[in-house]
Protein: Phytanoyl-CoA dioxygenase family protein
Amino acid sequence: MTTLDTDGYVVLDFLLDADLLAAVRAAMTDALHHDGARGPGGTLHVDDLCGPAVEAVWTAPRLVAAVEQVLGPDPERGALHVRAPHPGFGAQALHADFAGPPPPEPQVAVAIVALVDVTEDGGATRLVPGTHRWNRTAPGNTVDRTWPGEVRVALPAGSAVVLDGHLWHSGTRNRSDRRRDALQVTFRRRG
Structure:
């Protein structure tokens, strides 16, 4: 069984029910119409999602419990935005979401919530289990290169992967024929 402590991540199946998933997608559409997208070509980024559905994601009990397991009680909210690679895009180098060598206690936790079904070939998040404990930075030049021990996390829509922000991870190239929409929700250790 995958655990946050040993592997650095955990999957939360069906974190969002069908109604909440539809409401989050509507918030994304509203933000797109209001503010437009940002980011480099090929990958759509949408910021400033708001409303009751987005608040329900921030406060989802299973999500909060997993984040608190990484960061301790009452973590601070970081950012919440959509990252949605079009077909052929989305590949990233392995990285951690904290600059520099990891401090003694984790400082960042990230949840990636699938807004559509995400297959292994459709831009699934790749993770290198255990690297959150290695006390070194991720290697460069790993875009589209397999790393020993990596796993790719396929998620049905509404499910999430929560990870210690010090874990090496990346988006993979979307080799499907449709856009891969997902929320990225970031929390920080309080103080």
About this structure: The two ends are 32 Å apart (CA to CA). Residues 24 and 87 are 22 Å apart (CA to CA). DSSP finds three helices and nine strands in the chain. The mean pLDDT is 92.
